[in-house]
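Input/output pair, single chain:
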Amino acid sequence: MPKQVRVTLFMVLVLSLALTALAPVSAQGKILRVGMGAAGTTVEFDVALATDTTSHTFINMLFPGLAPRDETTGLPQHGMAESWTISEDSRTYTFSLKQGVPWVTYDAAADAVVEVTDEAGAVRYVTAQDFVYGALRTMDPATAAEYGYLPAEWTEGGEAFNSGEGSAEDVKIKALDDYTLEITSPEPAGFLLQVYGEWLFAAQPRWTIEENGDSWTLPGNYHSYGTFVLKEYEPGSRVEIVKNPFWTGTESHPVPALDVIEARFLDASASLAAFEAGELDTIEDIPLADLPRLKVERPDELYIGSRDCTYYYGFNVTKAPVDNVHMRRALSLAIDRQTLVDAILQGGQQPAGFFSRPNFAASATQEEYPDLGTRSDPELAKQELELYFQDTGNTLATIPPITLVHNTSEAHAIVAQAVQQMWKQNLGIEVGIANQEWQTYLDGLTVDPPQVWRLGWCADYSDPHNFLGDVFKSTSGNNHTMWGNEEFDALIDQAKVMADFEARKPLYACAEHILTWEDAAIAPIYFYTKLSMIGKHLDSSPSIIGIERYDKWDIKS
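Output:
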């Protein structure tokens, strides 16, 4: 049966003719023009399947969660949950939901955002049942969501369902009524509210997903309920989202001042050129070669701030020659991290020998545990390479060829070339470099990871478990190293349920040492800072969590 909708036309804002190129206000209203990602970047609009920060930037505006984190503090706020209670054993969370929030879509024929109706013509409102469906769909093994393990881990019965050994009926997430949602965890944890507040537990529109299958994310089939609505998507080129006139606001998602957000995917140099020409209002990526100039010429528009992300190289431990731990250690030790951040990146980044960010309450740091983790040490790197030769009988001349693969990006290419030179200088090893378009790259990491590859991880919630457990536990869909370690898993499982942050630190320190040194499954390289250009005509709230909330920005009048 064709979908029925009740049309409500977007109110058009009448504006002054005294406009400038730097304050793009038109008959469409206030338009924010954003340069994000590289040319060719693709966006995953399926809530269950989105894995990258670009996709999550849109998802978090289109599908507000129960208690999303504030982008400037990282702390949970009231989203679709107006209130919540926690049981005495800290395992059961009961959320009271915002009422009267309609599902909406963009109707191209009417050129308007419209409410979605059911077969009887009644408006579909977001209910607790939609949240249950969304979480279960993400956990369902048939969905094959890389993040499916995360809601499964923190919902009783979820892990059995996610592994294909249990049923959805046994998962302890349920609608007590249309606007009351209850989630029970198999065990308590201090960060549960942050987990339940993530997009992984957001409502999803069952009717259009079941009717349209994979095509439900196309404009016209795409039903959402947040501050903005998907209007147009040109894969690899641009996304346009428009203000949802039916959204009445929450603490985390106030009614937007903007009317349109247009994102363009451009390489860093092209993005900066467009910004400096007044064609973009803000850009998320800056060419490293231009950073010194921008510090002098445009200091009021250059933004350098905190960002809860770690940049690292991963090893596929099943592929020679990095199937040998001494080779992996040698490659990690040979990276001069301090020179990389000081002389090449120049954006205030910090060298990283642990994977977890050091700024969380339970984070172990190398200052506290100086003998643990990896580091930069060319002489020790040579010793580890010699141990590799002893193990394998290889020499420099017979080492299997190594290729470092990264997603297409000017900045990633510069980092890769610098590391390539360090490996040649410190070890005598010639390493090739290859790059791939973002979606092709992500698909490859899932199906057949390269020998050496790069990724960044940004905190989904402010706890080291999100880095160590959610990425590198052996059951994680985010673990592309093909590596697992029972001792590592046990340490993570023990630490995650402990309420004492200080008591958790030594467990995480040991886990870091296994990951980055004993098994050397990855080479952490640096802790990010955020580098962007933000026009002086904008009221902005730059994010520390790796995901911007452009729906909270404004254009000054």
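The radius of gyration is 24 Å. The chain has a mean pLDDT of 93.
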